[in-house]
Amino acid sequence: MKAQAGALLPPTSPSKRPATAQFALAALEQYSAMSTSGEVLHHAVEQAAASPQPSMHRVLEVLEEMATREAGKRQDAAATLAGLIRVVAANSLARMVFDPTLPPVRLDASSTTDMIVITTTGLKLPPKAAFDKPEVLHQQPLEALIGRAVLYLIAAIARQTAFEDPERFTAVVLDELYWLTSSAEGTALVHEILHDGRKHGAGLLAGSHDAEELGPDRGLMAYRALARTADRERARRGLEFVGLDPNDSELLRLVTTGLSPVGQKGREGEFLLTCPRQNTGRIKVSIPRIPRITTSITTTPGRRPSAAPPSVPAAGEAADARPKEHV
User: According to the 3-state scheme, what is the secondary structure of the chain?
Assistant: First the structure.
């Protein structure tokens, strides 16, 4: 399945200039923020943010203008950056950031917007090992570098939106968290939400296949859940994460085979849940019997249940004529 943008992320509003610069620098990994190229890029972001219609497309236009009027190293840097960003902008994966014809997505918290969902289907990421070796990261395909930059931008905007109104609680939900904690920038975002979220009325709901992928600040997570994993080492790390003895053979057996046993219908959704008082219990999560949820919540290909047949309204009751919701 290919990623298809339906709205434009507005990263160059005054409050989101750092996220814009980080997106561009992440896509152009070889340039430092403190180099001539980094300074030129920062100037272009500032100019674009101050324009009547700020966008990443406008950043590219500013760089092209600088390439014609500047001189020396700044002119060369602007021309080089403009050329490289044109390559990035031409890729379909970057359309949500660069295409000025897309309608801008509204990220402001309001009484009519209870949830903002950004799908990332089709984005590619560099392998985890590449983040520790700059020379390997520079050799990654363009799609992987764009994927990393787009995901960082999404996370930064999510943080900005969550911290915007302290009077209204906002949860930042991040699944497959490894894609964020694999980089220093992503780890810093998770760190900020965990450390400063409470005073801004925001919280983090994160999921991963391994406790280590939750990042170095995972100890600050108040509620912790552990599901079945067949890998014994991951199971040990998970037990330690929820505050249980990782060397207890019975607990290890429970996590590797006892929770939601494979092939036993009706046992899906079993977890160990630990609360802030360090009480741990065994729970079961059930899917609500609501058609729009039951037909969308399962992600395993070929296993999505069919929607339940609509019920016939009783006499005197109006049928629900609302259009189908897309989750």
Answer: CCCCCCCECCCCCHHHHHHHHHHHHHHCCCCCCCCHHHHHHHHHHHHHHCCCCCCHHHHHHHHHHHHHHCCHHHHHHHHHHHHHHHHHHHCHHHHHHHCCCCCECCCCCECCECCCCCCCCCCCCCCHHHHHCHHHHCCCCHHHHHHHHHHHHHHHHHHHHHCCCCCCCEEEEECCCHHHHCCHHHHHHHHHHHHHCHHHCEEEEECCCCHHHHCCCHHHCCCEEECCCCCHHHHHHHHHHCCCCCCCHHHHHHHHHHCCCCCCCCCCCEEEEECCCCCEEEEECCCCCCHHHHCCCCCCCCCCCCCCCCCCCCCCCCCCCCCCCCC
